[in-house]
């Protein structure tokens, strides 16, 4: 299972070669997206063509949502870290979805996610400053 964060999905949508190659190398693994990642991708759409691209990409995987208890844990984490570490509420919800699933989250957002107890995050490929 590959649990992907928004930044990784944006790289795939933009056809960033390292992202495309990494995903292709894991083509036998199921791609799983927290529902909040899908919402963030849709929020970034500028027009119907962008939304259609997002819809096609999302359709290749499975969308998952956290449970009520995971959402409650996200609220506690957000309250604890949003002021001190600038943790966003969607990042807290995405993180607790990963914790609920017991899966590492593929992301480059190490700064915010590093403070969340119980979360394992991995940088899936090498990213240059031009991405």
Task: Describe the fold and architecture.
With 131 residues, this protein is an alpha/beta fold. The chain has a single domain, classed as 3-Layer(aba) Sandwich (Rossmann fold), CATH 3.40.50.1010. The chain has a five-stranded parallel beta sheet. Strand 4, helix 7 and strand 5 form a beta-alpha-beta unit. It is globular. The model has no long low-confidence stretch (mean pLDDT 95).
Topology:
Layout: E1 2-4, H1 6-13, H2 17-25, E2 31-34, H3 35-43, H4 48-59, E3 62-64, H5 68-85, H6 89-101, E4 105-106, H7 110-113, E5 121-122
Helix pairs in contact: 1-2, 5-6
Low-confidence stretches: none
Largest sheet: 5 strands, parallel
Overall form: globular
Strand arrangement, major sheet: 3-2-1-4-5
**In CATH, what is the homologous superfamily?**
5'-nuclease
Number of β-strand runs: 5
Question: Main traits of this protein?
Answer:
131 residues; globular; alpha/beta; 7 helices; Rossmann fold; five-stranded parallel beta sheet
Task: Offer a quick outline of the entry.
By secondary structure, the chain is α/β, with parallel strands linked by helices. It contains 7 helices and 5 strands, in the order βααβααβααβαβ.
